[in-house]
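User: For my dataset I need records formatted as: sequence, then structure tokens, nothing else. Please produce one.
Assistant:
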Amino acid sequence: MNGPATAPWRRLDPRTLLVHCGWMGAPLGSLALTALATEGRITPGAWITLAVIAAGFAVVTAIGLIRWARTEFRVTDDSFEVRSGLLTRRLRSVPLHRIRTVDLTATPLHRLLGVTVLRAGTAGSGDGGSELSLEALKVAEAEGLRARLAARSDVGTLTDDPVLARLDWRWLRRAPLTFWVVGGVFVAAGTVYRVLDGIGVDAWRIGFVQRAFREFGSSVLWLTVPLALLAVLALGSAGAIVLYAENWWNYRLEWTDAHTLQVRRGLLTTRAVTIERARLRGVLLREPLLLRAGGGALVRAVAGGLGNREENRSRSDLLPPAPRREAVRVAGGVLRAPFPAPDLTPHPRAALRRRRVRGLLFAVLPGTAVLAAAGAVVTPVLLPCAWGYALVATAAVEWLARDAYRSLGHGIRGSRLVVRSGTFSRDTLVLERAAIAAWTLTTSPFTRRSGLVTLTAAVAAGEDGYRLPDLPAAAAPALAAAAAPGILDEFLVYPETPQPPEPARSLRSR
């Protein structure tokens, strides 16, 4: 085995150059889209925009070429080293025992070229600054490097089935029960509009777009509007199913050894994320409103070394939308313990009043005021609409407020803290108490008047902080001290033990 001083330096795969040149596909695609939208008539402004984009991508490609030529790496007996840079050479060396996660990601272009991207997250890579990344390694080389980086001397043996979950295609029917059923259609339409606008094409002047709007406006609205909504739902559902299949194709969640959890998934873009058990701080069971109505849930890991918040959201997924019973089972398998029962300590009724008031102030009142003002200024027809909106919105706010209040709960279960909250997404957090590094107690004039306080547990993992909203102000410090002893002790004042009264002295007369 090579020692620390004799391990040879290795370069990235030469196909890295083709990966960087692949960025030039964007300007070419924009040119094709422009030609298609304008029926072959491309304006001088569009040519200038495309030239600027092409020049920008050419610069990025040149930088990529220099990065490939000046990047080398090696793995010694005790460290992972990467050196790079043109004018200023930079050497980064990370001890192997500090590497917590290893992520292999391959886009369709990477897979076509037979390469993949390796990212190694360290114990301090919460902001992405300590992450080591190698782009375009051979797949076999990357797999071998991942295995070596994840290897530890304290590997034990597994007594249970190491495979926690595989993809069940029956879960696919829960894919449309997400926000993207509607929101994804408008996001896609907005993206196309911005691309066209960026290359100088006015989307509203395209022939088939104008014809579609003229036909829509000349039709019977009570018929065309519902049909348009159905079309949006159909497109959104189809898109959600396609995204679900692409993201979770060949999904597999397993313990590769006694201390390493691995998630593999992806059809076009493949991903393999490895999480060390020592950095796994808990799990998050998420139940978005529509998915919860369909009896589903998903699971995320609360772990360190997964990058910044954006990267953490994509790497922490452990289970796609699936039946809630399956999600609870998988969460228990990740915890290596049964998932806590839902019998948690409820929060005060003042929390219900707060949710009612916020709903009335931010949802019911503004909409009613706008409709009423428009009815008074524009047309009296909108006045009944204002009353109708007020009644419907008030009923919806009352239902959502009660649901959000029923979701509130907390408890201490052995070495873990359990927190549940939310209505649009009811989240149940199971967090290792030892992972809590600090507490933040937050109040406002309204919460102080209601006798409530919000606790935030600072954790060097996941979202960095997790809230316990609307706790009783008198009980919150005691809960924080019990969940993570020693953090708040110097700020707590305990009542003094009463001293026994002194015996009465008899007075003797002189």
